[in-house]
Amino acid sequence: MRGKCPVVTVWDEAMPGAPRVVLVYGPLAPGAEVFAGQRALAELFRLEAAGPATGIGDGPRIAELLGYGAHLVGHCTGATASLYAAATAPHAVRSLTLIEPCAVRATPGGLHGAPPRPARLDPRIRPATLLTADWPKLIVNGAPGGPYDARRSCVHPTPPGYGEQLADALGARHLRVDDAGHAPQRDRPGPVNAALRRLWQG
After folding, report:
1. What CA–CA distance (Å, rounded) separates 39 from 11?
2. DSSP code of residue 18
3. What is d(CA 57, CA 80) in angstroms, rounded to the nearest whole number?
4. What DSSP letter does each residue of 48-117 carry, written as one string?
5. Are the C-beta atoms of 38 and 47 separated by less than 8 Å?
6. Which helix (H) or strand (E) covers residue 107, if one does?
7. How many whole angstroms separate alpha carbon 145 and alpha carbon 148?
8. pTM of the model
9. DSSP state letters, 140-188
10. Sign of torsion, CA 120 123 124 126?
11. Which residues have CB under 8 Å from 116's CB, separation 6+?
């Protein structure tokens, strides 16, 4: 996605003027289909799936997609790009949901790149920037166990505990989805969609 327009898939069965939602996926996901479980929400919201995003370098493109305002959802490295976009264009964000954020960890000193590259992220990504935003935030993770451990083969794993750390740092609600792996929105769309609908209609 860097340096070019992202691929955008639109699911829209809602009434004209329905709230917009930008869904950002990473390069390891099977394209927009990683959000196929959310298509049922297109009856109420205009869903725009964009990607693939590989990290903070794609944040500016995601910020552009927000336009005058949209709910923002990112999965895997798409969550990292979404975090960057939200920090740099908070006025355009209606809510922020990070699903299995993989390339960022939170510490009392700020947000950092996750191992194996623990370098500090772009200075514009600061908890303070996001904490002062007046929109709701949600972090979603799969549950520890069999499906969760299978993610070790993923190039960008999300170690247990990262979601809770990030939620604490951002003042976000945290949702742990049982019997789900690295893509809880695909593995168990029911509880994820319920949480998203509450967030977007709140």
Report:
1. 7
2. P
3. 9
4. EEEE---SGGGHHHHHHHHTT-EEEEEETHHHHHHHHHHHH-GGGEEEEEEES--SEEEETTEEEEPTT-
5. yes
6. strand 104-107
7. 5
8. 0.88
9. EEEPSSHHHHGGGGSSS---TTHHHHHHHHHT-EEEEETT--S-HHHH-
10. positive
11. none
> What confidence tens digit (pLDDT) does each residue in 112-141 have?
665 544 445 565 566 677 878 889 999 999
Element (H, E) at 139: strand 137-142
pLDDT tens readout for residues 13-49: 999 999 999 999 998 777 899 999 999 999 999 999 9
> How far does the chain reach from its first CA to its final CA, in angstroms?
31
- Residue 74's closest CA among 124, 41, 34? 34
Contact call for residues 156 and 103 (beta carbons, < 8 A): yes
